[in-house]
Amino acid sequence: MSRKYLPPLVAALALFLLPLLLFAPVALGQRTLLPADALFLFEPYRSAADELGVGTPHNSLVVDLILENYAWKQFLHQALRARELPLWDPYIFAGHPFLANGQHSGLYPLSALFYVMPLWRAFGVFAWLQLALAGWWTYLLARTLGIRRLGSLIAGMTFSGCGFMLVSVTHPMIVAGASWLPFLLAMVERVIQQRPLLGNRPATLPWALLGALGLGCQMLAGHAENTYFVLLVTALYTAWRLLVQLARPGADGERGFRRAAGLRRALAWLALMAVLGLALGAVQFAPLYEVAADSFRSGEAAASLEQVRGWAYPPRRLIAFAVPNFFGSPAHHETFDLFRWRTVPATENAYGAPISSHEWGVKNHVEGGAYLGLLPLFLAFLGAISQPAAQTATQRGGRLAAWLRHPHIPFFSLLSLFSLGCIFGTPLYALVYLLPYIRQSHSPFRWVFPLSLSVAVLAGFGVEVVQKTRRGDKEAGERGDKRRVFAPCNVLLLYTAPSTVSVLAALAFWGGVVTLAGLALSRVVFAAIEPLVERAFWGLALAPSAFPDHRIFYSYEFKWVALFGLLLTATGIVLRVSRCPIYLRRRPLWEVLAAVLLALDLASFGAGFHAAADPALLDHVPAVVEFLQQDTSPWRYATFTPPGTTKTMNVNVGMFYNLQTVAGYDSLFSRQYADFMGLIEEQDELLYNRIASFSDWSSLDSPLLDLLNVKYIVTEVEIPNPSKYRRVYQDEAVRVYENLAVLPRAFSLPATATIVADDVAAALRTYDPHQYVVVEPPAAVSAGLPSMLVLPAAPTPQAVVEYTINQVTVDATLSEPGWLVLADSFF
Fold first, then answer.
1. pTM higher than 0.90, yes or no?
2. DSSP assignment letter at 724
3. Rounded distance, CA 40 to CA 55, Å?
4. What distance in Å separates the CA atoms of residue 649 and residue 657, rounded to the nearest whole number?
5. pLDDT one-digit tens code per residue, 703-734
6. Cβ distance 16 to 132 under 8 Å?
7. DSSP readout, 6-29?
8. How many CA atoms lie within 13 A of 36 on its CB side?
């Protein structure tokens, strides 16, 4: 093997192995990333928790991984076994489109893992490989931008291990989609540079085709908001690079029109890349657009700018960029009490209410994972302020103008600042609010995504600065420059020649030392400062809701602030060692230290956040499920969860067992269905993408439940309505009531006594299924007429002889012309 291939192979191996620091037990071991233990927070699982040895769930915040993604992947498995395209999901929302919705990532290439491996293991392997891929694409981008191998490695490690990527593992479609942004930017850059592929001949077509493939893969991940950000950032980068190319000084004899012609060619190739990529992704996004246009979201009134800014990070969240666990974590269930010198579990808060973890931050972790590591922040600052050669700066308009003409650094610097402005809800967000389709996004903190990649790239440029200034600092030291500095300054600057790197090294080192010394001193004199600590504890929003008293709060924060102090000190040491000619097998020692420190820093944040559960828990089938599965006729169930009960049969768990329900949890479902369910009970969980369980007693009396073929009600309480509901099952967890008034899944009505209703919604509120049923004949719809109300005689049940995921076959016998009604959602 040629030696020139060895360094990139070493980098690839490092980026490949880095995620295993966190995910080895669930990717290679016998544990699963799926938070199966979180199912035991609610019935009918909770009653079996003691028997199965399930204690406090490790992290209830990541339950979406099992309620949504596991259910989706199971359904994909079912469709593949039946050799069917999973176009329709009959198990939730009384049926709704599945393949079109996209977030299941069923068409994404790496999702093949879920089709060839056991699901309990595939999720861990997918997370491992997808994060490794994100790191490698960032390495490729950095190399394309001219950053050397070490800087590219640091950039790749930063992006693949940053808080945004690690917490997004809960949503595989987000991790999958986000990983392709650095690849797309690399292909755009290579098209503009006309980077040779083989030999020295300029090339554009290969990069355009690879970019199109990358864009197609990104879209197949199925997360529309993520794709929006990818397309937006890619478009901005393309515009920036073309403008810089147009404004740059021409080579001798090169005229402006010739450069403009070259840019037009590059733009044409980039347009081809976009068109082909969109065409590849259209197999997912064309039906996704159709579903989205008819979804409950399409009827939402756009939030005002002030409302959206109100959902941004509060200023105090800046602390989390340095101390990521300052606001707690749902995976932290105990604290080492520095005063009693023992570990204390989280059982109750300062108000006496029960708690299971120390989490008190707003939008913490899953929605607010913004940690980037300490060393990358210092390196990114160095990269952002780095200047071109002095000669260029003095020739044309000064240092600022020369900085702006740099083809890459200003873009990622400005994108970082703009992203921060959006994350914290500054007036800058008004520019985003003007963009098309973005007003339905209520998440300014999603700009953590472009911020993370920008900081990673700038950190790579920062490594370049450190490497380039090593020789200059060494020469300055040899000239004795540092001896002319006042002696105390020698100590403050850690005995290095004054430079930006040495100043940052000193700030980091002494900042860490002061932090650690201050912590130690605070413990020694705690009796004197205890009133201040107590006042701070009660003054901090939500802190009393996560800790029993100010001493446990102090003990918890002591640990994480101490870790910050250690990492900050270590960052200063690494930067200081970069000024020294110390080598480890011909490699500068600081390079090895930088990579190791960054890996430990990012791992210290991500360690223990995600579940590593026993996969055997997934095999547990509650007794009530076995009872319900005995009824092989078509029917649906609903859950009734009044105050004081758990989330009985939590949303989507029926999909695990092929049980059909009227509730559900998905980012997209029909607006018509949401409106219909709102006639039964107010839908107050649409903001959370759910048709909720019923909690109002009057909902059980609604005849619309009968029309939906709801045969069983699963609940933890008694339903005292024997005329309509008969209890048919009970165990220590739940009760099941049979709805005696349920209408069959398929029935016929005579085509007589038809009227047209002007106000269908008003009619439905007083609907009686034995009087009329709502239908929408194609002729009425095409003519723009309102829905029709058909006054029937008694419904006549008809036989459903086949019910598959895409097709229902009804053997109907009618004695006269009439309507055949199927109680499924329509799309």
1. yes
2. T
3. 9
4. 11
5. 889 989 999 999 999 999 999 999 999 999 99
6. yes
7. HHHHHHHHHHHHTTHHHHHHHHTS
8. 24
